[in-house]
Automatic annotation (TrEMBL):
The gene is nrdA. Transmembrane segments: none annotated. This is Vitamin B12-dependent ribonucleotide reductase. Residues 739-843 form the TSCPD domain. Belongs to the ribonucleoside diphosphate reductase class-2 family. Keywords: Cobalamin, Cobalt, Disulfide bond, DNA synthesis, Nucleotide-binding, Oxidoreductase. Residues 42-133 form the Ribonucleotide reductase class II vitamin B12-dependent N-terminal domain. Residues 154-689 form the Ribonucleotide reductase large subunit C-terminal domain. One of its GO terms (molecular function) is cobalamin binding. Catalyzes the reduction of ribonucleotides to deoxyribonucleotides. May function to provide a pool of deoxyribonucleotide precursors for DNA repair during oxygen limitation and/or for immediate growth after restoration of oxygen. InterPro entries: RdRp_reductase_class-2 (IPR050862), RNR_2_N (IPR013678), RNR_lg_C (IPR000788), RNR_NrdJ/NrdZ (IPR013344), TSCPD_dom (IPR024434). Its EC number is 1.17.4.1. GO terms for biological process: DNA biosynthetic process.
Length: 963
């Protein structure tokens, strides 16, 4: 690690005598710790899949209002020292003290405070905000600050690589050190010459994709910080690079390989023992597109691919065709995303130093090569007042204090390389952001995908960044502007004017956002005045990060800019166990909307049972949108996500970590629309994810099918190797007619509101032989088509076509009517055909054949969540089904005492929960009957949930990316 030069030299440039810190949150003469109640807890963490205890620390100290989940995550992730050793941290006080004391001492040393009283006030205010969950620094701060380890405070790094072997090997080395330190890195490979160009020796170059293999293997080997998440990385390639098509299709081809290996019986689930044989799986890939390319796509023109060594066009491609291939690859495997180069660099404050060519792994930090950014995020719900309006004044004051602390950290921080340290000290990039936006909007009675919701989000984001740059200009007067400011002064001021103009363009819709907008307008006016006089201390100020682990530390309901994940969640209890609760913001939102206590109670009870608000008793349909979520029955449309990002982007120095989720039925054209609209709306980057597009997910058990297909393949191979026989035998099918009297069953069903009846008849051996479907009125076209279809299927069955063949062909067909059914075994159906053949499979196919088709009964699905296997087991004479059916009722003795002043509604919404689900994602699957497409946690084995463009585990706080 490289220790940086302190900013004492920069301090000499300033003319001020230090900041005067105003006491806003804390009470003079009273330590913030003395204003809250503390309690001792036992933190025991188990792998919920195996039951193995993976962590245990008894008697840790936390505030009584911190959730069990928050204290578990902080204890396991951030407490330093070996468990059981005398120097092991055992109290949140110790953790916060070592961080705050380090920041305060550095602030004193480098001239940030006017007096010792101001330094003490800074310490008290920072401690208050942290212990009361108003904000959190990013994870590396909690890992490293105040310990004997290098004082790495940055979570995000951007590297660079040139067209030389020395530079490429140095790239591998630098990434390894960054991963070891618990962070992620991104870089652009476009300087590396393509495989269509010659080396100086006359040979053909390997191209950047070939060098990605080595870096991918390194990332897969090194765990971040020796912790529980794998390394996070981003690889970017310019759209005019001659190897762009190979880059685009790289991960899609590997996904095909995963399917082939899975079907051959290999373990290809995420984290499976055979998945490591597949390449390019440890990085997010993004194509850096230009306005020129996007216009060529719009106009259907040719686009030139340029040699890296000479800059000349060596190949032309159809822009629409290339754009289509990018979208097809994203449809198939979620990669690549797009980064919009001209938009990014149009908002660049330091163009005289160099262009922005890449981002960090989650795409929120975009700045100079060989640079880093430390992050902090505010909990927006903490600033919601009793009258359900946003406290713009206190929010602005908190932002000022946090930005000050973040800038101080650069004075003492260590960095993995000398070049990164120099760039960061010279440009002092910061990344303040927020979490809990989705919960805030819901509590205010605003829909996430509504004009009111977007206006509120835009004004808050504008205020945050405006206040940050205002404080940055004030710091410049005291400790000097960043070293690269003079060179980039005009460009930096131009970007400040662009932010101000975007703020002026916001049209508020109600009193709440008008108040925030007024504060933001004043902040940007101050930015212009102070910046002209003092310059700025920081080249960048704000981003919107995933806030995965730290979001749980702050007990946030939603992460980053995300909407609420679902309306029901799991809550851990003191003493072990958990309960299902309806989101605590829902009663607050209903009261805001004018519903009385009786209606609120009825609506909350309905949501707790169904997981959504559709047909909730007494709830007005015009209020449904307020309770739309990322997953579930009323999930947000993809463009709803894009529009929210678009209104916030003009007020961010960096970008936004967020994935636009699309249903499995989404088309390539829809992905093209998302990418194109994102460019038109001014986003800096867009990533998409289509449900179930990746094979390596622990959602569907491929074991039965894999084994069956492997056996079929082996039989086919044996047959191919057998000696050729000249005799030709012609097989003709024979019809096995149904007996005159046969056993049949009639099933009534509803799919998406369409009612019907199915009668199925069986042979004497119990095998299915005929079906009759009754839909529509007699004599109608639909009834006639169903009659003809029933006859065709029945004849096929009697001529020996296996039911599983029909099932594999007709399940997953998607057309209207579709949606919810009244069948407890099949809660959702994509079409009538999808439902009918799933029902027939459950009625007539044995478990082994259904497993190969991925069709399981409700009991079997619950058994899998509980035991990791669909197979029936017995335990001391009790079947697994009986164990699963028995709910784990939480006794009153284990429930925590309600906090003083807390709303009683939240606890009233709690309900006993079955033991089959362990996280909110699993609970949502049980309630909705649909799968949540996310990986299992490497540490505790539970299903993670999306957080920005990463995933986060509710059980232990592990993330799949940077936070």
């Amino acid at each position: 690690m490289t220790e940086t030069v302190s900013s004492a030299t920069s301090a000499a440039q300033g003319s001020g005598a230090g900041l005067t810190i105003e006491r806003i949150f804390s009470t003079e003469g009273v330590h913030p710790y003395d204003e809250i109640n503390w309690e001792r807890r036992d933190v025991v963490q188990k792998n919920w899949k195996t039951g193995e205890t993976v962590f245990e620390q008894l008697g840790v100290e936390f505030p009584d209002f911190w959730s069990i989940n928050a204290s578990t995550i902080v204890t396991t992730k951030y407490f330093r020292g070996a468990v059981g050793a005398d120097n092991r941290e055992a109290s949140l006080k110790t953790l916060i003290n070592r961080v705050v004391d380090t920041y305060t001492e550095a602030g004193i040393k480098h001239g940030y405070f006017r007096t010792a009283v101001d330094a003490q006030t800074f310490s008290d205010e920072l401690t208050y905000l942290l212990v009361n969950q108003y904000f959190s620094f990013n994870s590396p701060v909690w890992f490293n600050v105040g310990t004997s380890a290098p004082q790495q405070v940055s979570a995000c790094f951007i590297l660079s690589v040139d067209d030389s072997m020395d530079s490429i090997l140095n790239w591998y080395r630098e990434e390894g050190f960054i991963f070891k330190g618990g962070s992620g890195a991104g870089l652009n490979l476009s300087r590396i010459r393509s495989s269509k160009e010659l080396l100086k020796s006359g040979g053909t170059a390997s191209g950047p994709v070939s060098f990605m293999r080595g870096a991918d293997a390194s990332a897969g080997t090194i765990k971040s910080g020796g912790a529980t998440r794998r390394a996070a990385k981003m690889v970017v390639l310019d759209v005019d690079h001659p190897d762009i098509l190979e880059f685009v299709e790289t991960k899609m081809r590997e996904e095909d390989k995963i399917r082939a290996l899975r079907d051959a019986g290999f373990d290809m689930d995420l984290g499976g023992k055979d998945i490591t044989s597949v390449q390019y799986q440890n990085a997010n890939n993004s194509v850096r597109v230009s306005d020129e390319f996007m216009r060529a796509v719009e106009e259907g023109k040719e686009f030139g691919l340029k040699a890296r060594s000479t800059g000349e066009v060596i190949e032309t491609v159809d822009a629409r065709d290339l754009f289509r291939k990018i979208s097809e690859a994203a449809w198939a495997c979620a990669d690549p995303g797009l980064q919009y180069d001209d938009t990014i660099n149009d908002w660049h404050t330091n163009p005289e130093t160099g262009r922005i060519t890449a981002s960090n792994p989650c795409s929120e930090y975009m700045s100079l090569d060989n640079s880093s950014c430390n992050l902090a995020s505010l909990n927006l719900l903490k600033f919601l007042k009793d009258d359900e309006t946003f406290d713009a004044v206190r929010f602005a004051q908190a932002v000022e204090l946090i930005i000050t602390a973040m800038d101080i950290s650069i004075c003492f921080a260590d960095f993995p390389t000398e070049s990164i340290g120099k760039t960061t000290v010279d440009y002092r990039q910061l990344g303040i952001g927020y979490a809990n936006l989705g919960a805030l909007l819901m509590a205010m009675g605003l829909g996430y995908d509504s004009e009111g919701g977007r206006s509120m989000a835009a004004t808050i984001t504008s205020l945050m960044t405006g206040q940050s740059y205002k404080r940055s200009a004030e710091l410049a007067a005291i400790v000097g502007p960043y070293n690269g400011f003079a060179r980039n002064a005009e460009a930096h001021k131009r970007v400040m004017r662009k932010h101000q103009a975007a703020n002026d363009a916001v049209r508020t819709l109600h009193i709440a956002d008008a108040i925030v907008h007024k504060a933001a307008t004043q902040a940007w006016a101050d930015v212009q005045e102070l910046g002209a006089a003092n310059g700025f201390r920081n080249a960048q100020a704000s981003v919107l990060a995933p806030t995965g682990t730290i979001g749980f530390m702050m007990d946030c309901d939603t992460t980053g800019i995300e909407p609420d994940f679902s309306l029901v969640k799991f809550k851990k209890l003191v003493g072990g166990g958990s309960m299902q609760i309806v989101n605590q913001t829902i009663p607050r939102a209903l009261k805001k909307l004018g519903y009385d206590e009786e209606k609120v109670e009825a609506i909350v009870e309905y949501i707790g049972e169904h997981g959504h608000v559709i047909d909730a008793p007494g709830l007005k349909t015009e209020h449904y949108e307020i309770f739309d979520t990322a997953m579930g029955a009323r999930s947000l449309k993809p463009m709803g996500h894009v529009r929210m990002m678009a209104v916030c982007q003009p007020f961010l120095s960096g970008a936004i970590s967020k994935t636009v989720n699309l249903p499995e039925s989404a088309t390539v054209e829809e992905i093209e629309d998302v990418y194109m609209e994102s460019w038109k709306l001014g986003l800096k980057a867009t990533a998409i994810y289509r449900d179930n597009c990746k094979v390596g997910q622990p959602l569907a058990d491929g074991g039965g099918k894999a084994k069956k297909d492997a056996k079929d393949a082996a039989d086919a191979a044996a047959a191919a190797d057998a000696p050729k026989v000249e005799t030709v035998t012609v097989y003709a099918p024979t019809r096995k007619r149904m007996p005159k009297s046969r056993v049949s069953r009639t099933t009534s069903f509803t799919v998406g509101g369409a009612e019907g009846y199915m009668t199925s008849g069986a042979h004497d051996d119990g095998s299915l032989g005929e079906i009759f479907l009754k839909l529509g009125k007699q004599g109608s076209t639909l009834a006639g088509v169903m009659d003809a279809f029933s006859i065709a299927v029945s004849i096929g069955l009697q001529y020996g076509v296996p039911l599983e063949n029909f099932t594999s062909k007709f399940t997953n067909l998607a057309f209207e009517p579709s949606g919810f059914t009244d069948d407890e075994e099949i809660r959702m159906a994509k079409s009538l055909m999808d439902y009918v053949f799933r029902r027939l499979a459950l009625d007539y196919l044995p478990y082994e054949k259904r497993a190969g088709l991925g069709i399981f009964s409700a009991d079997e699905r619950q058994r899998y969540l509980e035991t990791g296997s669909y197979d029936a087991i017995t335990t001391h004479g009790t079947s697994a089904a009986e164990l699963i059916a028995a709910p784990a009722v939480i006794s009153d003795a284990t429930a925590p005492e309600p906090l003083a002043g807390a709303e009683p509604v939240a606890e009233a919404t709690a309900a006993p929960v079955e033991t089959t689900a362990r996280t909110t994602a699993e609970l949502l699957e049980i309630i909705s009957g649909t799968a949540v497409d996310s990986p299992l946690c490497f540490t505790c084995g539970t299903k993670m949930r999306p957080a920005g463009s990463c995933y986060v585990c509710e059980g232990c706080g592990s993330t799949s990316g940077c936070s």
